[in-house]
Fold this protein.
Amino acid sequence: MSEQKQITDASQQPSLLLASSSPRRRDILSRLRLPFRIVPADLDEDQFAREFQGSFPELVEALAAAKARAVAAAEPAFDGWILAADTTVILEGDMLSKPVDRADATRMLRLLRGRAHQVATGVALYNRRADALTSGHCSTLVRMRPYSDAEIEAYVATGDPLDKAGSYAVQHELFHPVERVEGCYLTVVGLPLCLVTRLLRQQGLAVAPLRSPAADDPPGCMWSSQCRPPLPLGAVGQ
């Protein structure tokens, strides 16, 4: 049996649900080696965003909490913790969420080209039985390279941008849209393990400490050596 199947096998009676269908979040969470089960949230995110009063980072945190509560309502027999996340792209005061179609994806990629923007990811951990909620958000500055219209067209044709905030994946092996990441790379992918680890430990779940004890490691997030992005040498800011 593969490690991934062992991790997500419901027969292990995991104490954690991941409220997301994103394969990227699934893969990131599996690094913690905690058993979990996937139950996507059924939530009208667009309506929630329209009605929300607050900043965009506050919005993604609130959306993560709403997703966790939605899964709790759909899984009344589950009494463990539900982990949810939401990510958005913020360009000069405007939010770029998932594109509605390929033309919209093309528009967003042209807007982002050669410019810097913020990516915010909110994370929430919820337990229905205790009605306990803990949440937070991370923001990272991302600088895009000056890719061409032809590159945009080829990337959009793959269909990859259609389920991603801002219409791009920082880790895409062919497009490589990002020139520099100044902050947490996994925030841009969609699930900052530094924040997830902190929330889980606050609730007594056994996960690794936030900082690496290795003497030769630089101080900071213990996951920094595990989430190095496929970017040109020197492209990731610290």
